[in-house]
Amino acid sequence: MNRSFIFLILFFLIFIGVTSSIFVVDEREKALVLQFGQVKSVKTDPGIKFKIPLIQNVVRYDDRILSLDTMPLEVTPLDGRRLVVDAFARYRIVDVVVFRKAVGTGGTASAEVRLERILNAALREVLGSVTSNAVTSADRVELMTRIRDAAIAESSGLGVEIVDVRIKRADMPTQNLAATFQRMQAERERMAADERARGREAAQRVRALADRKAMEIVSEASRDSEIIRGEADAETTKLLAEAFGLSLIHI
């Protein structure tokens, strides 16, 4: 009985030891085998791996391309028009050993805090060297490439590779929008007033031309009617005279 119990205990301990020494690396991740906090090996190939139970532990990192959305950042381009820029980056952990040393136990969350600071600095540097029109235009691929390259240079010590940087939105701050809209409204109202004034002036010219033309037509019609009336009176007088002459002859 005692032997069976001891055998079961030994079997259980061996089973626990074997199962705790086996771990699986997924194809979407990389793994570090740590011994007392020190890196002993790097596992990048997927499959079943082994470690020393109780002494060694495994830390896993995502090997896929990750996304980082930054908080909206206010920048000041060359022309002094402040803009609120909303950007995001895609990055990948390429060296897990350097990444572990750089961020410690903080992992991806700690790395993204530092990456966001790096990205914000690159945004301010690059966007501060151009005008606001260049930032808000659709053709800003070159600016995003410059931001990415600057961020890559600064993030090399983190063991990550920044794959891409994109500007999602670049707008004026909310407090500036009202003033801008008022200026735009005032400008549109001024343009509308100018158009109305030009329209009234053109209408007056057309009305004056129409009045003059109407007077000319009426004057010509009156003159023609007088001529026709005079000719008719002359013809009437002539006919009456001829008729009177014929009556005298018959008498």
Would you mind describing this structure in some detail?
This protein is of the alpha+beta class and 251 residues long. 58% of the residues lie in helices and 23% in strands. The chain contains six helices and nine strands; from the N terminus they run H-E-E-E-E-E-E-E-E-H-H-H-H-E-H. The strands form three sheets. Strands 6, 7, 8 and 9 form a four-stranded antiparallel sheet that branches. It has a three-stranded antiparallel sheet with strand order 3-2-5, with no helix packed on it. The longest helix is centred in the C-terminal third of the chain and has 77 residues, at 174-250.
Mind sketching the topology for me?
Blueprint: H1 2-21, E1 22-25, E2 29-35, E3 38-43, E4 47-50, E5 56-62, E6 66-69, E7 73-75, E8 83-93, H2 96-103, H3 107-127, H4 132-136, H5 141-155, E9 160-171, H6 174-250
